[in-house]
Amino acid sequence: MKQCIKCGIKKPLSKFYKDIKRIDGRRSDCKICHKNDGLKRAVKQKYGITYNEFLNIKQKQHNKCAICNNVLVSGIKTHIDHCHKTDHVRGVLCNNCNRGIGYLKDSTNILKAAILYLDKHANKETS
């Protein structure tokens, strides 16, 4: 057993990454804390916001996708949506919505055309 220096919880050695430089051969922070630190750095580096800002955005969205309103599952196919021209963070999306607007090149014109297309064919599908 070893106590993580970040979360303070005692865990089995298997819950710590190996580190040959350490006396016990394991890192001082557990795998979960180490992963969370990496995530926090990545959010800041890639999107220019802190991890707490990311959590605040999710909270304002009631932990739901900003487009489809489905509940977001932390770490699983949850995306920080941003403008690719300005890098401005717009919100947090589920995987499907993030891919959808990405495939449609973040273009409101293409999205409007897609809506018109679906509306046009919706009546034919119910007939």
Sheet-strand content, in percent, reads 15-25%
The major sheet is characterized as: 2 strands, antiparallel
Termini separation comes to 67 Å
- Strand tally is 6
Q: How would you spell out the order of helices and strands?
A: EEEEHHEEHH
- CATH superfamily of the largest domain, by name, is His-Me finger endonucleases
Q: Assign the structural class, choosing from mainly alpha, mainly beta, alpha/beta, alpha+beta, or little secondary structure.
A: alpha+beta
Could you characterize what this model shows?
By secondary structure, this protein is an alpha+beta fold. It has two domains: 1-47, no CATH class; 63-127, His-Me finger endonucleases (His-Me finger endonuclease fold). Helices cover 43% and strands 18% of the residues. The strands form three sheets. It has a two-stranded antiparallel sheet with strand order 1-2. A hairpin with a 6-residue loop joins strand 1 and strand 2.
Task: Describe the structure using short key phrases.
alpha+beta, two-stranded antiparallel sheet, single chain, elongated, 4 helices, 127 residues, His-Me finger endonuclease fold
Provide a concise account of the structure shown:
The chain is 43% helix and 18% strand.
